[in-house]
Every structure is written in C-alpha cells, then in structure tokens.
Amino acid sequence: MMYGNILEMFSSIQGEGLLVGCRQVFVRLAGCNLRCRYCDTPGSQTDQQSCRIETAPGSRNFQTLAGPLSAAAAAGHITSLSAVRPHSISFTGGEPLLQTAFLKELLQRVQTLPVGKYLETNGTLTDNLAEVISLLDMIGMDIKLPSVSQMTCWAEHRDFLRVARQKSLFVKVVVSAATVVEECIMAAELIREVDQAIPLILQPVTPSNPREKGPDPAWMLRLQAQLLRYLTDVRVIPQTHKFMGQL
Ligand code: SF4
C-alpha cells in the first residue's frame, strides 16, 4: 500500500482551463519540482504534515488528518466527495506526478468510479506521466514562459507533449504584462509540432497585489490573433474561481 502527501481534498467548480465551470473533486498533492514566481498555491510546493478533507461535497467543513494518507483512505474520501455527480476528479498540486507510485495506486482504486480522471500538471516529468497515462482520461499541462515564470523548460515540455497527446489534452500558458510575444509563439510552435488542434488556453495572470499588472486587454486580442496563425483553438480564460470566491 502506498502513502502520499496530500494537501487538501474538496468538491468545487473548476475555475480555469478547458473544463472551466465543471464540478470536480479536487485532490491537491503536495510538493513541486518547480518554483514559479506567480504560484498561487505555495503550500503545495512542500510536503505537508497534515491533510484537510472536506467532510461533505461543497460543505466547506474540513477535517484535518495526519499525513501521509494511504491510497485506500484517499480513494475512500474521493468516493464520498463524488456524491454530487462530478464531471471528473482533478489530480492537481503542486505537481501530482512527483508522487507517481502513489498516484498510480490511487488512480487504480478509483478507476471504476463513473467520472473522468483529469491530471493538472506542469508538463515537465515525462517518464512519470508514462507510468500513469493509461489510467487518465484528460490532461491539462502548462507551458512555462521564461519571461513570466523565470524558468526555461522547453525541452521538457516538448517531450511531455509527445506522450500526453495520447489522451484528451490541452495546454495552458500564463501570461502577464511581462510576457514576451516571441515566447508565446515558441509555445505555439511546440504544440503545432505535435498537433495544431490541441487547444491552447492563454490565462492572464491573476495579480497577487495592486502593484502587479495583468496583461493589457488590447495586447491580449493581438496575441490571440497572432497565435491563431499557428493553432486552430486558442482561448483566453482567466482564473474564474478567484472572482467567484471559490476554492
Ligand atoms: S508548477 Fe504550479 S505548483 Fe509548482 S511552483 Fe509552478 S505554479 Fe506552483
């Protein structure tokens, strides 16, 4: 039996990406191999000693359990939180693929639940993805732009895309006032190498303080138009859960 570091589990509305608006069970795994400057879940970057679990779907009442959690216990909580007929289970983080063996057992244990199994990932750990991809239905992966995240992962993203395309896949790119257009074009070219029909979501960064600036609206329109020369489906979707007051 595998044990895993889970930060929290709850039922909510997906606020970003292609599944925006869908009811999901969120399983947020702790730990991340990256350190993005704009990270909105800093608690998920490190291992946690405890895990908070919603007691009933959407109740916002949480119990705190000591971590790590066994895959059997986590699967039991996922089943309880699936009582309101969610569209899918979102395995998110942090970076869920850092705990591959635990994630694999957990996915096996919830395989028979009649809901989608969706992975939200930073798109850098290709070998780990290969170990669990047969158990997933959908993947939302990031491409990190150096001008926004202060990291360079082009080679990792290229490898990851080639494996992830086996499943329903979309790519998310966070853009800010500091975003360099040429980097967005590089991201679009990377996706086009694999399949120009893979949806690309441009997500304007959510300012974490009044001094931080999101991208200019007119610039967003021009950027979307430019990228539509490379890809057939380019959408602009902000983090809707932030202005809805959802988790
Ligand atoms: S990959 Fe995600 S969880 Fe990890 S540091 Fe970046 S934004 Fe945060």
Defining traits:
247 residues, alpha/beta, TIM Barrel, 10-stranded mixed sheet, two-stranded antiparallel ribbon, 30% helix, globular, binds iron/sulfur cluster
Question: What does this protein look like?
Answer:
With 247 residues, the protein is of the alpha/beta class. It has one domain (3-244): TIM Barrel (Alpha-Beta Barrel). Helix content is 30%, strand content 25%. It contains eight helices and twelve strands. It has helices spanning 71-81, 100-109, 126-132, 146-149, 154-164, 181-194, 217-227, 240-244; strands spanning 3-4, 6-13, 23-29, 50-54, 62-66, 69-70, 88-92, 116-121, 138-142, 168-175, 200-204, 234-236. Strands 5-4-2-3-7-8-9-10-11-12 form a ten-stranded mixed sheet, with helices on one face. Strands 1-6 form a two-stranded antiparallel sheet. Helix 7 links the parallel strand 11 (200-204) and strand 12 (234-236). Helix 2 (100-109) packs parallel to helix 3 (126-132). The longest helix is centred in the last third of the chain and has 14 residues, at 181-194. The chain is globular, with a radius of gyration of 18 Å. The chain starts with a strand and ends with a helix. The structure holds iron/sulfur cluster. Iron/sulfur cluster is lined by residues 32, 34-36, 39, 41, 44-45, 93-95, 122.
